[in-house]
Amino acid sequence: MKLRNEIAIWVASSGFMVSLVLSMIVFFEMIEQPYITLDSELKYMAKIVGQKMLASTLVKNDDVLLQLDNMSKAYWIKIFDNVGNCIYQSNIAKNIELPGLVKRKGTTIFAQSNQSDKIFRARVIKVRIDNSNCVVHIAKSIDELYGEIFDLVWILIFALLMVWILLAILSYIAAGKIMIPIDNIRKFVMNINEANLYPRLQIATSKNEIDEMSVAINRMLDRLEFSYQKQKDFIANVSHEMKTPIAILKLFFEESIQNIVASPDYQVELHKKLIILQRLEHIVKNILELARLEAKDKVEFEVIDLHDLIRSLLEDFAPLVNSKKLCVKHQMMQDIMIKGNSSLIARLLINLFENAVKYSFDGGEISVELNKTVAEFPASAGKVEAVRLSVFNTGLGITSCEAASIFEPFYRSEKARSSGDSGYGLGLSIVREIVRLHNGIISVEGEDGKWSRFDVLLPVLQADR
């Protein structure tokens, strides 16, 4: 799950829990309020009934009792005199009996009738009628009250749902704004590699934790760049210093072989030492070439007919291919022109072809494909037209673990070492640097002990550098 979604969920959930607690507090506070209101209503109604009863006794008028009946239609009312005789009862009281009411002033209870399932809120209130203390038993059904409470519950649930949705939207938007600098740092770090240690993060003036992290990343990149450059300079300087002594030793052994009359065994030893020096000289040349390529940011470009260049190099490799009885197949589009450095592109192709031949079993197969496609390059805005070069061979193959390290300098797999390969692990590093200088992409895949394939993507058209 993305960090933005996690932040939004945590904020929305926390807000929802707070809203839920507040809603419960409001609910328990408000749930008593209807009963308090009803008790006040019953008390007020009891006084009104008392006043009406007093008026009816004074004027001896049945109209007053009729008014009292109309007024008490929604109430259960019984009035008792000071000796306990019922002197008045409402229409509801005539039909429904509420047992359990006590004749004590101020009593408030719930009462359920024997004749129905209705529950009443009842009060016993003392009033004075015609200089006599009377007791009014008054009650009202709470069915409507339950309906109000039920409506209140649904209102709170709806409000909670709306609050949660609003919180989720707002927290997602806020998390997105918070994640902008973090996402910029993520994209920046993903583009950092050994060939691209120079960019630095922009530091804002807010001095928050993200700015502190940006400063720390920049300092780390400074240390990495310094160490990496120091390592490259050291290798290049050592290789350069070794170049002259190796050349002198090589010249010495060549002259010794030609001019010194020695036993055959001694001549063989001189030849062996010369071969070792030649290998060492080849390593030094490759290291210097790799160092030069890594130090470059641009090279001179010209128009290259890639189809003709590949065909020419395949013809040069014919003797080596025939010696291992390899079957070479090629499927290449014609008239594929790119802008690049011809000597570097030729070196790239030579290294890939050498690699394919070297690690193919006798009687194996090599396949070369050249076609057009579309690809997205590091220096391009979106997908552009590209050339795809694929070099496939059967043989030792390659594993996914080896594919992650195969372009590193001096890397050689255990299979390559055990097969007696005389390589030095620099050829594919040089290929990678050549591809980088051409703004291209190289990848490798394969199956252990069966096959491997190198794919190179290069832009068809590039601006001159």
Write the layout of secondary structure elements.
Blueprint: H1 3-30, H2 33-59, H3 62-71, E1 76-80, E2 86-89, H4 91-95, E3 107-112, E4 119-129, E5 132-141, H5 143-190, H6 209-259, H7 264-295, E6 302-305, H8 306-316, H9 318-323, E7 327-332, E8 337-340, H10 342-358, E9 365-376, E10 383-394, H11 400-403, H12 414-418, H13 427-437, E11 441-447, E12 451-459
Parallel strand pairs: 7-9
Antiparallel strand pairs: 1-2, 1-5, 3-4, 4-5, 6-8, 9-10, 10-12, 11-12
Give a verbal description of the structure.
The protein has helices spanning 3-30, 33-59, 62-71, 91-95, 143-190, 209-259, 264-295, 306-316, 318-323, 342-358, 400-403, 414-418, 427-437; strands spanning 76-80, 86-89, 107-112, 119-129, 132-141, 302-305, 327-332, 337-340, 365-376, 383-394, 441-447, 451-459. It has four domains: 3-30 and 147-186; 33-141, Beta-Lactamase; 209-294, Helix Hairpins (Orthogonal Bundle), CATH 1.10.287.130; 298-459, 2-Layer Sandwich (Heat Shock Protein 90), CATH 3.30.565.10. The mean pLDDT is 81. By secondary structure, the chain is α+β, with helices and mostly antiparallel strands. The protein has 13 helices and twelve strands. The strands form three sheets. Strands 2-1-5-4-3 form a five-stranded antiparallel beta sheet.
